């Protein structure tokens, strides 16, 4: 039945009902009888959006009217996940909307399941950006996130015969209700071409960037509402278009395909997210993506500033702070320099002062293969003027290096932005450090290693530039929204509902950790969440698991340094122990994995296959009486994380010490009452400090020990021969036992562990890891003890709220005061 036009109602539930029905009818042309869950989702999302857009307008006017200082967050990735629940929660209409839908007889679960994830990121770095923009809005900080509106997000993963297969993620093929397109703010930018050496009348060098290719960026805005506040910031994502949709000449001559070729090429730029998150492979399109979004964003920032300030370069850096999310947007340093010098005719020193006051850079990795470098010939072709400017930045930079260390040529080449030898390459991390006033690592240990190992001379050259900002996660999505039962218990226990804005309040749960009644409530919620995950495992993997088993979870990108294969060795060892002693007294375990491997990363894909195939064998072996189960859930993404995390008992954070910059999944799992088994790496160190030694299982070598063993010449065979069980497990995996008829199926894995030199020292840490698991087993048998430990984890990880992280950035790096709205 068609709904009448919406009428204002005093009853919030009635007015939401009216709004949803109104959108169903007038926005989507559906009647209630024929509406699919997706139609209901769209109508509900539009109704939520109505709440947000009026607040968005109010927020932006407040910021504009007061001409406030703003933070601009530049990131190639935003891993947002679904937006419905968080939008409703942050708009303060979640409960009323649920009730409205119930009264309308709509199936809520089906409705919410019909929203595709907005998966515009690879992993930790992209999800961090999403948590940060949530916190920025919640803290009333004036901020805009800039990025790319990829038509295809991270690939969708399926398994065939245990192998990963990738499918395109066409998340917006039927449109998305959250984006507001703003063609009036489109920007034209240029790329390619060449530099003409021109001199003006006074003989000054005035280079001209000519014969360029023009592109248009059209912004799509996503509203970003804060929780418990009026602020609604925006996430502005650029879509690329051609300046001319059609080549009329070609068209008139009958070249129909030729006529739209330019359009197709231009639109390719925002087509697809690169699925690599460690090795940069120097692809031209990726460089074009970086420059396109940086150039559009800077133009937009300058437009906003000049609208108020006229020709106000003098106070640009007072009003504008730009944070570079890793080096991916680091070309912004050269692009702003080009604008200031070539277009605005500022002199070098003036321009450079503005730049270094404006930019700050966050580093997310120490792994050498993940540090971005671009070949000079590629740069010369794509961004010829920028290359000249980078050379000049470098010349001046090397002057300061030479002044500090006179006569030291080695120091010059170490600190240079341009790497000589072989093909010349541009080191983007060096450009970002030189062009920024602050550089930060993402956990205390990471920042120390950054100063010591990655940029040792820069820390001496620029004292005070390097800071730590330990990562955080938004407690809205990662507790309030994903674990409603635990959230209700927390609100009841604390006697106040405002803990999602002040996560330190959870400390008070510590007082209940010894209380049997509270322990039972806490663990009963965990069990309900485990039952739900068990159903999901059944659905997605066809594996039956018992919610009474210990749920042992490793969920993260698949990488050698994260050591999913260490976990696998332990599983195979347990399997072997059970076969040798079927009565072995052990807590039944369900090992849960979820992970995507970069499509070109063969070893990572081999590890996925090994876990799948060996897992299947274990799952079907009746001899072990269901004591071990292995489930690798396909297509890991934010939505799946929201399902797994509330159900986890044990959180695997087992990277080789010194390799994981921070980790953020470790924080999400601890917040939801999972205990960590982990190395002293990344933020695990700080999690351990917060929860206390009694409430975490630490194992393995420290950074110093890793270094010492490596310096002494690490030989995996030493550990292989010294440990009978380890040797048997590796031999077993290397045999064709798990893949009858298919020999050497796991040769890449087997090779990596032994003849490949075991670069991440899996063998060296194996025994210590296995022993830590024995301690886990013992703790889990003692239910009150385990409950207490789990509660202590939830109670003591308030530090890891991204609100704390963002407050530190705002105070220490951005100098950014909050601006309350109304
Ligand atoms: C250069 C390109 C190939 C590239 C693309 C994406 C390189 C790296 C990345 C993503 C890196 C990433 O996600 N790093 C993770 O950042 C998290 C947030 O700071 C950390 O918690 C995590 O330890 C780190 O691996």
UniProtKB/TrEMBL annotation:
InterPro entries hit by this protein: Glycg_phsphrylas (IPR011833), Glyco_trans_35 (IPR000811), Pyridoxal_P_attach_site (IPR035090)
Cell compartment(s), UniProt: Cytoplasm
Main localization (coarse): cytoplasm
MF (Gene Ontology): glycogen phosphorylase activity; pyridoxal phosphate binding
Key word S-adenosyl-L-methionine present: no
GO process annotations (BP): glycogen catabolic process
Cofactor: pyridoxal 5'-phosphate
Transmembrane segments: none
Enzyme class per UniProt: transferase
Glycosyltransferase recorded as keyword: yes
Gene3D superfamilies: Glycogen Phosphorylase B (3.40.50.2000)
Keywords in alphabetical order: Allosteric enzyme, Carbohydrate metabolism, Cytoplasm, Glycosyltransferase, Pyridoxal phosphate, Transferase
Residue list for modification N6-(pyridoxal phosphate)lysine: 668
Listed GO CC annotations: cytoplasm
Catalysis: reaction(s): [(1->4)-alpha-D-glucosyl](n) + phosphate = [(1->4)-alpha-D-glucosyl](n-1) + alpha-D-glucose 1-phosphate
EC number, as in UniProt: 2.4.1.1
Superkingdom, taxonomy of origin: Bacteria
Protein purpose: Phosphorylase is an important allosteric enzyme in carbohydrate metabolism. Enzymes from different sources differ in their regulatory mechanisms and in their natural substrates. However, all known phosphorylases share catalytic and structural properties. Allosteric enzyme that catalyzes the rate-limiting step in glycogen catabolism, the phosphorolytic cleavage of glycogen to produce glucose-1-phosphate, and plays a central role in maintaining cellular and organismal glucose homeostasis.
Family of this protein: Belongs to the glycogen phosphorylase family.
PANTHER family the record matches: GLYCOGEN PHOSPHORYLASE, MALTODEXTRIN PHOSPHORYLASE
Protein name as it appears in the record: Alpha-1,4 glucan phosphorylase
Annotated organism of origin: Synoicihabitans lomoniglobus
